[in-house]
Hints:
mainly alpha
Amino acid sequence: MVTTPVHPLEKKDPKEEILKAALKLFTEKGYFNTSIADIRQLADVSTGTIYHYFKNKEAIADALYTEVVRSLEESFKEIRRLNNAFERLRAILELFFELTENEPEIVRFIVMVRHQEILSQRPPLSQSPPFRLLDRIMEEGIRAGELRRMNPQVATAVFYGTVARMALLRLEGVLEKPLAFYLLDTWTAIWRALAPANEKGA
């Protein structure tokens, strides 16, 4: 997604403006409560411009899904290059917490939107490339003895379930302070659940 500030005299990319508007509307109003007219108004483009880039509303949602999944996968691949499971999982936690604070619409799209209802031809987010990569990070950590012996999918559920719940509590306003304030407590809880028995106190 576009996060680079645009100079007032520069021409904005209509396609990016459409995607930004759709992301905001889908996560605030819901996909089914958002119309093409809503997206047109927020993006400040013509209806013809929208249909120039996208066949219909589902195509806009599909483009958003593709972009979010691609961006997450690239971040996870970079994180996978770190030294061990401790560093990798801590980095993913920090990534999600930073995204929640700086790009809340993206995190809402990840954790709140029911993608299967919108994009039935797409795999569930839990089976998308970045989350399969997270499973592999778990498998590698378990095999190397860096994580406790357990089913990798259970390990992923323990980790991501905690991360997603904290993000959701922040997005819903239950947690009033930035997520960085809760980072140490969250990481300590996750690591105690996943660490080998001899490292529970790490």
